[in-house]
Amino acid sequence: MIISPCISICKTDPSTGYCYGCGRSNEEKRLWKLEETTDDWKKENIIEIEKRLTGWQLESFKESYSYKIKNGMSLFKKNLIKE
């Protein structure tokens, strides 16, 4: 099972149409939820996301997504729980 790249920062850039947190379009988010979407497609989508993001946004995504894979929640949610 491939973990969703959502890192709980769900806000779409009006210029690009991509989420500031995970870098996905609304259509990509929709496809992730479908049962028939393959793991191969999801792996390729993560590669595309990482090509799409740059600088601090890419680093933030990689750090939070890695944390989510290991711990079951994004760093953003972890920090909300602390507060």
Offer a concise description of the structure.
This protein is mainly α and 83 residues long. Helix content is 57%, strand content 0%.
Q: What does this 3D model show about the protein?
A:
With 83 residues, the chain is mainly alpha-helical. The protein has 4 helices and no strands. The protein has helices spanning 26-33, 39-52, 55-71, 75-82. The N and C termini lie far apart (31 Å). The relative contact order is 0.18. The mean pLDDT is 94.
Secondary-structure-derived class: mainly alpha
Rg from C-alpha positions?
13 Å
Report the sheet-strand fraction: under 5%
Distance between the termini: 31 Å
DSSP summary: helix tally: 4
- What ranges have pLDDT less than 50 throughout 5 or more consecutive residues? none
* Mean pLDDT over all positions: 94
Outline the fold blueprint:
Layout (H helix, E strand, L loop, with lengths): L25 H8 L5 H14 L2 H17 L3 H8 L1
Key phrases:
single chain; globular; about 80 residues
